Amino acid sequence: MGASFPFLQPVSTPLPERAGQRAVRARWLWPAALLAFVLFWQFAKPVAKWAFVYPSAWELPAARWIGRATKWLQDEATFGLFTFTDLTRFVAAVIDLPYRAVLSLLSTGLLSGQGSSAVQQLPPLSWLAVLAIVALIGHHAGGLRLAALVTACFGFLVLFGQWTSAMVTLASIVVAVPIGVVVGLVLGLAAFRWPPFERALVPVLDLMQTIPVFAYLVPVLVFFGFGPTAAIVATLIYALPPMARVTILALRSVPSEIRDLGNMVGCSRRQMTWRVMIPSAKDSLMVGVNQVIMLSLNMVIIASMIGAGGLGFDVLAALRRLDIGAGLEAGLAIVALAVALDRLSQAYAEKAGQPAALAPSGTGLVARHPYLVAALAVVIVTFLAGLAVPAAQVFPEGWQVSTGAFWSEVVRWINVNFFDALEAIRNAILLNLLVPLKRLLGGLPWSGVVLMLALAGYRLGGLRLATLVGVLALLIAVTGQWEKATITVYLCGVSVVFAALIGIPLGILAAERERLWRWLQLVIDTLQTLPSFVYLMPVVMLFRVGDFTAMIAVVAYAVAPAIRYTVLGLQRVDPRVVEAGRAMGCTRLQILTKIKLKLALPEIMLGLNQTIMFALSMLVITALVGTRDLGQEVYIALTKADTGRGLIAGLSVAFIAIIADRLISAGARRIRERVS
Amino acid sequence: MASDQPKLVCRGIWKIFGAGGKGLLAPDGGRPSGADLRAAGAVGAVRDVNIEVHAGEIFVIMGLSGSGKSTLVRCLSRLIEPTAGDILFNGENLLAASEARMIEIRRHSMGMVFQHFALLPHLTVIGNVAFPLEIQGIDRARREERARRMIELVGLAGKEHVFPRELSGGQQQRVGIARSLAVEPELWFLDEPFSALDPLIRREMQDEFLRLQSVLKKTIVFITHDFDEAIRLADRIAIMKDGEIVQAGTPEDLVLSPATPYVAEFTRSVARAKVVKVASLMRGLDGAAPKISISDRAAVAEAAPLFANGADTLAVTDGEGRAVGLLDRAAVVDVMMRG
Ligand SMILES: Nc1ncnc2c1ncn2[C@@H]1O[C@H](COP(=O)(O)OP(=O)(O)OP(=O)(O)O)[C@@H](O)[C@H]1O
Ligand SMILES: [Mg+2]
C-alpha cells in the first residue's frame, strides 16, 4: 500500500481562529473529566451495562441497507438514458479494450478463437525486444546510466523467472496509469475552475484516501466481477486522488501574473487552460504522474485479490503457502518494476522541466525519430530471431536462477537455532503488554470513550471539532463495530508507540549528522517503495501468525514518517534561536530539550499523525496474518463479496483515521500558535 | 504630445477586497475611509481614483508597496473587476463590455508588461513573443515574421530559439516588452517592468524604453515605486497612497508645488534643475533673440552647459522652432543652486 495517506495531512480544514480561544481553558476540566471517567468505568458496570457493551438491539442494520442499495444499483438504478449497469459495463469496456491490446503485445500474443482453444497467430514481444525497448526509453529519458539501470531491473525479471507474471502486471499498469492521469487531471481542472465542484470533490478524495483499499474492493468486485478489469478499477480508485489533488495545487501555484498574461493576450477559456495553465504547471503535474505510477504499483498485490493476476498473485499465493523464497522473489520483482518505472517517470519529469533540445536539423525519418526507428528495428529483428531461435523468444527455463530455496533455508536455520529466543521475546511482549492492553481497551465503556473524545475535540478545536469527532465515534458504535474497532485501536496504538520510540530518537540522532541522515533516507525511501506484503513475509516466517507479527510488520512500515518528520522539524528550527540559547550558556542537552524539541514539537506531532495513518493502512493488510480487528472484518467481507459488511468495517477504519488526524492536527496547530 | 480627446478615462474607481465590497460603498455617500473598510474586515485597495490618460503620453502611477498600483492597473484592463466606477477607453465603457468584446479589445488594443516578466517557460523567445498572435489564430509564418521584428526592435536578435530561463533578467524583460508590442497595442500597460532588475540594467532599460517610445508613440500607463524612475520617464505622474491618488500632475508640478507633505517627502531629494522646464523660467521676448536657443520643453539642467561660453541669455523656442522667450543665466543658476 506504500504511502497510503501522504495527502491526508494538508487536507484537514483549518478551523476558524476564534474557535481556539473559545475552547474552555479552565484547568480543572481535564482532571475532573478523567476522574469521572475512571469512576464510571470502575463502578457503573452493574448499573448501566448498555454503556459498556453496545446493545445489539440498538444497532443500525447499516450493512443490510448497503447490501440492499447495492442490489438496487445493480438491478434497477437508472439515470434516464442509461442504467447503472450500463455505466459499469461502459467503464469496463473502456478499460478492457486497451488492456487486451497491451496484454497481447506483452504477454499472450495475438490470439484467434476463444478461451483455451485459442490459437496464437502472432507471438508477443519477446523478452529481448522488451529489454531493448526499455533500454531505448531509458536512454531517451536519462542517458546511458538510466538505460543501464532500467535494463538491469528488467533483466532481473528475466533471470529470476518472473517474466510472464511481470508482463501481466506491467500490462495493467500501462493501462491504469494513463487513465488515472487523465481522469485525475480532468477532475482537478474542473475543481480548479468551479469552486463548488472543488468543495464537493475534496471530501470525496479525503474519504477515498482514508478508507482502506479492501473496503472498496468489495463493491468493485460486486459491480465489475472478478478479473483484471475490476483490479484496474480498484487501482484507479486508489491511485487517482493524488493526481486530482496535485492538479489543483499545481494550477493554483501558477503565478497570478501568468494568468493575467493569458487574459491580457485575450485567451478564450480553452486557450487559457491548454495553452497557458497546463504548460506552466507541467513540472508539478509530472509529480502527480509519478505518484499515480507508484500507487498503481503499490496496489499490485491487493488488486490480485480480485483477479489482477501477475506478480501480485504470485506473492499472495506464496504468502498463503508460507513459501518465503517464492514470495520474496515475486515481491522483489515488483520492486524492480517500481524502481524502473519510478526512475523513468522522474527522468521524464526532469526533462519536462528543462528546455527541449532544438529540433534536429535532419529531414529523414531516421534523423527525426531516431528512437522510434530503432524500436521498430528491434521489434522486427527480435521477431525474426524468435522464429529462428526459440531461446530468443522465451527465456529458457534452464538459464533461470532462483534463490527461493536459499531463503527458505535461511529461515529454517534461524528457526532451528533461535526458536527459543524468538519465542521468548514474542511471549514476553504478548503476555506483558499486548494482552493486558487489549483487555484494558476492550473493557472501557464505549459511551465514556465517545464523550472523552468529544471533550478532547472541544478543548482542541471548539464545538465543530467536538461534533465531528463525537459523531464519527458514535457511528462506529452504532454500526456495531465498537469491539473490533478497539482491537484496531489497540494494535495501531501499540505499533505507533513503538514506531515513535524507535523513530523519534533516530530522527534526533540523524538531524545533526548529515551522513547518517543521508543513509537513513535511503533506507526509508526503500522501505516505502517496497510493497507492504514484503514486510509481512519474513515476520510471519519467524513469529508465525498473530498480533505480535502484525505489530512488527506495522512498526517496520510506519516508522518512516516518525523519523522523517522529526528530522525535518529539528532541521527547520531557526539557527538564531539555537545560537541565542548557546549564548545564554545552555548545555547541548538543554539546547536539545529546552529549545529544539520544543520548537519542533508541531512537526513531530504531524509525523506522529502520519505514522498513525501508515499504521492503519498496514494494519488492514495484516488481516492476512490472522488479527481479529476491523481489517479482518473487511477481508472476510471480501472473500464473501459482502458489500455492506466490508464498507461498514472499512468506513470505521476511515473514521478512526479521521478522528486521530483531526485531533492531532488541531493539537499541533495550537502548539504552533503558542510557540510562534 | 497630448491631444484633446483622452484615450483612457477612469472615474470614481473603487476596488474593495473582502466581504461585502459593494455594500460598504453605499451607506456614507460612498466614501468610506481606509479605517472604515479595515474595521469591516475589507481592504480598500483602490479608492475613488479619477484619471485621464491622453494619446501618446507616458502616464506614470507611482506609489510605495501595497499602495494599490497593481490593483488599479488591473482594474484599468479589467483583469480585476472594479467594485465601482467607470472606465472609458476611446469613449467605450469597458465595464459594460461583454466577455467577447473584452477579449477582442485585449487582443488588438492592449499590451501589458509584468513585474516578474510572466514568460511562458515552455516556449522559446520567439514562441513567447509570437504567443499573443498565436492566440489570435494568425498563421505561423506571419506571426513569426512579426515576432522577429519585435525581437530585433528590443535588441535580442540572435536569441530567438533560446528558452527564457537561459536569459538574464534584463533580457527576459526585453522579451516581455517585445511580446506586449507584438499586437501593436494602442494602450500599453507596464506594471513595475524594471523593479526586478538591478540598478545599472534598470537605467539601461529606461533609456531603451524612452527610445522605443520616441519611435512608437504609444499611450502608456507605467507603474513604478521608484520616484526617480517616474521623474525620468513621465509626462505626467499620479502619486498613490493607501489606494488613493494624492496628487497628479507633471513632474514639474509635483516638484514645485507638492500638494501634501507626503508628496514633498518624495520630491525633496530630486534635483530641481532636472525637472523644472525651461518654459517655466523664461521671460518675455524683448528685442532680437540671442543666437543660441533651447527648446521650451527641455529641463533647466540641459540649458546650463549652453551658458558655458559666456552668454547671459538664451533664446527659448517652441515645438516648431519659433522663439517664444528668453532664459537668463541668473534664473538658471538660482534653480541649480537650490539643488
Ligand atoms: N486578491 C486580493 N485579496 C485581498 N487583498 C488584496 C488582493 N490583492 C491585493 N490586495 C491588497 O490590496 C492592497 C494593494 O495591493 P497592490 O498589489 O495593488 O499593491 P502594489 O501597490 O501593487 O504593491 P507592490 O509594489 O508591492 O506591487 C494591498 O494591501 C494588498 O494586500
Ligand atoms: Mg504591484
UniProtKB/TrEMBL annotation, chain A:
Protein name, as recorded? ABC transporter permease
**Which CDD domains does the UniProt record give?**
TM_PBP2
What is the first-listed, main subcellular location in coarse terms? membrane
User: InterPro entries from the xrefs?
Assistant: MetI-like, MetI-like_sf
Pfam families in the record: BPD_transp_1
Please, which domain of life does this record's source organism belong to?
A: Bacteria
Where it sits in the cell: the answer is:
Cell membrane
- Write down the species: Shinella pollutisoli
Chain ranges passing through the membrane: 127-160, 167-194, 214-240, 292-312, 324-341, 371-392, 440-458, 465-482, 488-510, 522-542, 548-567, 604-626, 646-664
Give the family from UniProt. Belongs to the binding-protein-dependent transport system permease family.
Keyword Transmembrane belongs to the record: yes
> Residues in domain ABC transmembrane type-1?
162-345, 485-664
What are the entry keywords? Cell membrane, Membrane, Transmembrane, Transmembrane helix, Transport
Q: How does it sit in the membrane?
A: Multi-pass membrane protein
TrEMBL record, chain B:
- Cellular compartment(s): Cell inner membrane
- Which SUPFAM superfamilies does this chain map to? P-loop containing nucleoside triphosphate hydrolases (SSF52540)
Q: Which keywords label this protein?
A: ATP-binding, Cell inner membrane, Cell membrane, Membrane, Nucleotide-binding, Transport
List the membrane topology term(s). Peripheral membrane protein
Q: Give the molecular function GO annotations.
A: ATP binding
Top-level enzyme category: translocase
Query: Could you tell me which InterPro entries the record lists for this protein?
Result: AAA+_ATPase, ABC_osmolyte_uptake_ATP-bind, ABC_transporter-like_ATP-bd, ABC_transporter-like_CS, Gly-betaine_transp_ATP-bd, P-loop_NTPase
Where is the signal peptide, in residue numbers? none
Give the PANTHER family listed for this entry. GLYCINE BETAINE/PROLINE BETAINE TRANSPORT SYSTEM ATP-BINDING PROTEIN PROV, GLYCINE BETAINE_PROLINE BETAINE TRANSPORT SYSTEM ATP-BINDING PROTEIN PROV
Quaternary structure and partners? The complex is probably composed of two ATP-binding proteins, two transmembrane proteins and a solute-binding protein.
The name this protein goes by in its record? Quaternary amine transport ATP-binding protein
Task: State the organism of origin.
Answer: Shinella pollutisoli
